[in-house]
Amino acid sequence: MPKLLLSHMRRMRGRVRGPRPALPPETQRVHRARQRLKKNAEDNDIDELIDYIDEQILALAIKYKKSRSYFRGLFYQEASMRRRRNQKTSSWSAFLFFQALLENNGKDFKNRANVASLAGANAVYAQLTDDKRCILIAEFDKIKLQAPKKAPNLTPRARLAEVSSSFISVAQELDALSARHDVHALLVLTRGSLEFAMSPKVYTSSKGIKQYFWVNFRCDLDEFAGKMEGNMIAKIRSNRKKCKHDDRKVMAKMQIRMGLNQALVEATSDNGATMEYKRYESAIVRRYNVKLVGWEHDEWTNPSYLKGGLPVLEKLADDVTSGKCQFIKVTPEEIEERIRCIETGEAVTPNCEPRLPSAPQSSISPADAPAPTLPDASASAADTPAEPPVSTEPPPDEAQSSDPPTSLEVPVPDVVAAIFARVFGRQPLSSPSSSSPSASAPIPLPSSSTESVTAQVQEGQPDEASASNDTTEGSSSMRKRKRRQPTDAAKAPPVKCTKPADKSAGMDKPVRKSRAKKGPDVIPPDADA
Known about the structure:
Elements: H1 2-13, H2 25-64, H3 68-74, H4 78-87, H5 91-103, H6 115-118, H7 122-126, H8 130-146, H9 156-181, E1 186-189, E2 201-204, H10 207-217, H11 221-234, H12 245-268, H13 280-288, E3 290-293, H14 310-322, E4 326-329, H15 332-343, H16 396-400, H17 414-424, H18 432-435, H19 447-458, H20 464-484, H21 503-508
Antiparallel strand pairs: 1-2, 3-4
């Protein structure tokens, strides 16, 4: 307390502690090395403490039969522990990876074993000792480090899941900060394009932030997030008409300047690259071997001094934003040519570059366009040579060819192969898909059946089309008969129909039977005879 009061009295009287003397360079190097060692020791102690906490949390979860996340939440360590856990490699994942490599060796894509069939070998995995599992993990980590890093092809569903999990992790970190240091935070997450379907996400560490927004801005946080989402999707273009003429000019020039700087950084892969307009040739072209194309303006100067009216500036800003005005690589020969042009007095600035070609337009009007000539219908078919019919069936080589069996994309280490050989025996575990015959294999028919089929076709059996017509006619007649039959057979009187005089005429056209009517029987006129 006396020290605090003494420092407070000095501050009140205006007595400030004097500046500290600067240390010599050698002393500064020693001090930095000492601080570096101290920081490494601190990091190691913190890692040991986190590992100890993780072990204790696991023991508590086993003892009280609760989840580990429950105890992590009590220590505000849930998010950090989850990230540390995801960084570790699972021995089960390494086991399935190497087992799939051995199982799918020499098989095509259709006959490969899936994860469900491989995951059934739990008893085999239980036979592995801890040393063998550590070997699998070490070899699997080596393969992962050697794999080329490619950009993931994320689907909209995967993108939404990743955004949601990251948002939850950030919110948990802010909750921990708010609980430990009594700080407040506001987090708003919105999408930037219409291609990604996601509703805005809002997080507040306390209710006071919502009350502050409502009292001072008369706006709910959800409403604010919706307006922010609309502004981000529109990308400032929707606010142009609401601004004044001078403000729109300033906005367009700022957009040109920021867009050129961003394009230069992307083209040169140098985060410290800045755009130079007066020293464009020496500071940009000769230094980074790039040049600017697509500059649709008559002047080349700093965007703050550009003239030509608002439509010209906004068009140039749109070209820079869309990537039409961009930087491209140049060869050393082009740089030498540019140097010779500068020595002769020619201008090589971006406004002197050839403009981008416009869309080609036809000089022939629709009225002047020649009409298409139609072939003469009176020409005989004998004059034109008959073209051979185009067969839609694939050639025999392509029809018989199938996907060749693929080899192992990643070589299996000898240590892992020895482990699997001891566990499974001489050969790896066979998958159920390999034992089943392939569905694409042709089924041989007996010679007698093929001969009988050909004999029936030669004897004049009806083809498939006629047979299908007969079956359809028969089915339709059966439906009609079923509809015409009365429900009660006892009430329906017998009906006699006259036969046609000519049998041949009756065979050409089927005779339809009249519906059953109640009344006396119909007697033909020649019944007495």
